[in-house]
Each structure stands twice: as structure tokens, then as C-alpha cells.
């Protein structure tokens, strides 16, 4: 196959046959390693089966090749044409030439080199954020191995007249944003640094939220026992023992807790999906695939948090029941005369300090984005964080660097 411009210049159309001359080299049997390969040529008939065009947007797919005719100045000037041929047919041709000369492989003509490009894609569906550090280490190890064994310094240079030995590889190079270079770290390493910084405020907020949930659960459990204090006193006056009252109430609470555990886990995942679809931008809603692709695993991943809440509720209930069962007039008077002094964490404002730490950490995680917004001229509309004014960014930068 060839482009329409190339077919017009060559004067061919679909169905035409072109005769080409392939030049190649063959190692001379018994020759020394410094002796260059013997040059041959072979006539090859190619059949034009189609015409195509390469839009500029698809240039990356063709490794930057545009298949345009290249005119070389000379005496007389000549042109170079790029054709597209099937790989299997090309390999069959070279295997035939190798068999014809009883050699293992043929070589390019003169000092030219063949170049091959292989593309490998990571299966992102098998990766999670917990595999990030392991993936970075594996890619770094692969890059170090390739640089040690197959770098340009450890192989024959392109200008050398000595033909490389088996496996006939002159040089091998990895090229991807996933690998670090002299210009900077890889995109995975940059992402890991952002994740490490973002985990500080996220962890603080998660601890605060989880602690508040436990506090509200314990408060609700205590209120429930206080609401049933009269009933417990009535049962005690009718001859019920402390063990009977405690066992009946704990059994009832345990059954209700298990029902809430079974129903609450899938409901929590549903609420997260419902809220995230309205809160997250459309471009970032692919993060919800973590839940939608593996709903059972997402539910089971939060079971330990739910069990911790149920456990705290049961412990709080048991302690409240013990105090309620043992309560008497003297204990009620002591409870009424208890000091109303605020607890230690309120006196030291530990909640405010934790919130400030979380907000500062969140600001650090957004600092690279703000720097990009601040340096961009004009302000890019594709970055939502660029709504921040330059003046507020300057104040933040002064606070950060000081």
C-alpha cells in the first residue's frame, strides 16, 4: 500500500505491479570478524493493493512517518518513497534469502541499519494504587538492566564497519514517560510524590471523620441505655438479676448490630456512587470503576471499619449497661455533682490543630498545580484549579517558602 501522492508520482494505481531491487549483505563464510558483509541485490515484485492517506492527527501511530516523498539533492537528484508492506511477507522474503545463501540472517546494505519498534502497554485493570511503589521499582530495575546490557556505550556504534554478532542487535533503548531520565523523574514517581503528600491531609481527615463516627455511635448507644434506664430499674425491682438484664439487652443489640452491618455495607457503596456522580467532574468519574468493576471487593474492603464501629457500639453499650444496672441513689447524686469541666482535647484545642495540619498538607498537595496555573499565560481553561487568583497564589507561595 502507498499514498495517493506516491502512486501519482510513480505512475501506478491499485492492481499495478512494481519491480524493486532489494540490496542486502551476507557474511562471507570463514571470513574474519572485521571483514564487511558481501553485498547482493535481488529483484522483488510488489503488488499494489490499496491507497491510503495519513492525517496529521495519526502521525504518532506511524512513529512520526508521514509517507511523503523525500527529494535528495544530488547529481542527478533522486527521490525516496516509503511503502507499507505486510510484516509476514517481508519476513518470508528475508528467510528465503537466508536459505538461499545458507546463512542465519541477512544484513542491511552498506552501513545502514534496520530499526524495529515494539509497543508494550501496561494492563491498568490489574493495578491499584497499592501496587504503585512495586511498579516503580520494577520499571526502574528494567531500565537499569537495559542500560547496563544494551546501552549505546556497550554495543557497536552505528558508524562501525564491523557487523554485530548474534543476536545482531546494535543498540536497544526504552522510551516512555514511565521511565525516569536526565530531564526529571518519571510520571509515576511524580504521581507517587503527590500521593505521599496528599495522604497527610487525607489521613488526618479520615481519622477525624472515623473518630467522630465512633463518638456519635457511642453517644447514641449511651442515650439508648439512658432511655431504657427506667425499664431496667423496673425489671430489677421485679426480681430480674443483673446477668439477665445484661444478657437480654446485649443479645438484642448484637442482633440489631449484625443486621445493620449486613445492610449498611452495600448501602454505603451505593451512597458513595450516588454522591460521587454528582460531585466528581465527568473526566474524573472513571475512578468509580474501582467500585463498579468489583462491587464485592469494594464492599469487603470496608468491612473492617464497619466491624470496628459495631465493636465500639457493643463495648459502649456494655459499659453503659453496667453503670445502669449498678446505679443507686448514691451513684445518681455523684453523677449530678460531677464537674462540668471540658475534656483535655477541648481545652488544648487538639481538633483545631489537627484541622490546620490537614489543610496545610492539602495545600502542599495542590502547590504544583498552582505553580503551573501561576506560570501559565494566558490562564489555561482546562485546569479547574486555575480559578485561584495570582495574588492569593503569591501569598500562599510566600507562606510556603518561608
Summarize the structure.
The protein has 402 residues and is mainly alpha-helical. The protein has helices spanning 4-10, 87-101, 132-150, 187-227, 229-237, 242-279, 289-293, 295-301, 303-325, 329-336, 344-347, 350-375, 390-401, and strands at residues 2-3, 17-26, 38-47, 51-52, 70-72, 78-80, 107-108. A hairpin with a 5-residue loop joins β5 and β6 (78-80).
Shape: elongated
**Low-confidence sequence ranges:** 156-161, 376-402
- C-alpha end-to-end distance: 63 Å
Average per-residue pLDDT, rounded, comes to: 76
Rounded Rg: 37 Å
Per DSSP, the total helix count is 13
So what's the oligomer here? single chain
Q: Largest sheet, if any?
A: 3 strands, antiparallel
Describe this structure in words.
The protein is mostly helical. It folds into 3 domains: 2-108, no CATH class; 120-183, no CATH class; 187-343, no CATH class. The chain has 13 helices and 7 strands. The protein has helices at 4-10, 87-101, 132-150, 187-227, 229-237, 242-279, 289-293, 295-301, 303-325, 329-336, 344-347, 350-375, 390-401; strands spanning 2-3, 17-26, 38-47, 51-52, 70-72, 78-80, 107-108. The chain has a 3-stranded antiparallel sheet with strand order 3-2-7, with no helix packed on it. The chain has a two-stranded parallel sheet with strand order 1-4. Helix 6 (242-279) packs antiparallel against helix 9 (303-325) and helix 12 (350-375) crosses helix 13 (390-401). The longest helix is centred in the middle third of the chain and has 41 residues, at 187-227.
Amino acid at each position: 500500500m502507498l499514498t495517493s501522492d506516491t502512486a501519482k508520482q510513480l505512475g501506478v494505481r491499485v492492481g499495478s505491479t512494481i519491480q524493486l531491487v532489494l540490496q542486502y549483505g551476507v557474511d562471507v563464510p570463514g571470513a574474519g570478524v572485521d571483514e564487511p558483509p558481501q553485498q547482493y541485490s535481488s529483484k522483488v515484485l510488489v503488488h499494489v493493493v490499496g491507497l491510503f492517506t495519513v492525517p496529521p492527527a495519526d502521525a504518532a501511530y506511524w512513529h512520526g512517518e508521514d509517507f511523503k516523498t523525500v527529494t535528495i539533492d544530488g547529481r542527478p537528484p533522486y527521490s525516496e518513497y516509503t511503502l507499507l508492506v505486510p510484516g509476514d511477507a517481508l519476513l518470508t522474503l528475508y528467510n528465503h534469502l537466508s536459505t538461499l545463501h545458507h546463512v542465519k540472517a541477512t544484513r542491511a546494505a552498506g552501513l545502514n541499519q534496520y530499526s524495529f519498534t515494539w509497543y508494550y502497554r501496561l494492563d491498568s485493570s490489574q493495578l491499584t494504587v497499592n501496587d504503585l511503589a512495586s511498579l516503580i521499582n520494577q520499571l526502574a530495575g528494567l531500565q537499569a538492566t537495559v542500560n547496563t546490557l544494551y546501552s549505546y556505550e556497550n554495543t557497536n556504534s552505528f558508524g562501525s564497519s564491523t557487523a554485530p554478532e548474534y543476536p545482531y542487535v546494535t543498540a536497544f533503548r526504552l522510551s516512555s514517560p514511565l521511565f525516569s531520565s536526565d530531564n526529571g523523574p518519571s510520571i509515576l514517581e511524580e504521581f507517587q510524590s503527590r500521593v505521599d503528600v496528599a495522604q497527610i491531609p487525607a489521613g488526618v481527615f479520615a481519622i477525624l471523620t472515623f473518630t467522630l463516627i465512633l463518638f456519635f455511635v457511642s453517644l447514641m448507644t449511651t442515650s439508648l441505655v439512658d432511655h431504657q434506664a427506667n425499664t431496667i430499674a423496673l425489671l430489677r425491682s421485679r426480681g430480674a438479676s443483673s446477668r439477665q438484664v445484661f444478657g437480654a439487652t446485649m443479645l438484642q443489640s448484637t442482633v440489631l448490630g449484625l443486621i445493620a452491618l449486613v445492610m449498611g455495607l452495600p448501602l454505603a457503596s451505593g451512597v458513595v456512587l450516588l454522591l460521587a456522580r454528582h460531585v466528581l467532574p465527568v473526566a474524573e468519574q472513571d475512578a468509580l470503576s474501582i467500585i463498579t468493576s468489583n462491587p464485592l471487593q469494594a464492599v469487603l474492603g470496608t468491612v473492617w471499619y464497619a466491624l470496628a464501629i459495631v465493636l465500639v457500639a457493643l463495648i459502649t453499650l456494655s459499659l453503659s449497661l453496667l453503670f445502669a444496672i449498678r446505679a443507686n441513689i448514691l451513684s445518681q447524686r455523684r453523677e449530678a455533682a460531677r464537674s462540668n469541666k471540658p475534656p483535655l482535647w477541648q481545652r488544648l484545642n487538639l481538633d483545631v490543630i489537627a484541622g490546620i495540619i490537614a489543610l496545610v498538607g492539602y495545600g502542599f498537595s495542590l502547590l504544583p498545580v498552582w505553580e503551573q496555573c501561576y506560570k501559565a499565560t494566558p490562564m489555561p481553561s482546562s485546569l479547574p484549579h486555575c480559578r485561584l487568583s495570582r495574588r492569593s497564589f503569591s501569598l500562599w507561595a510566600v507562606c510556603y517558602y518561608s
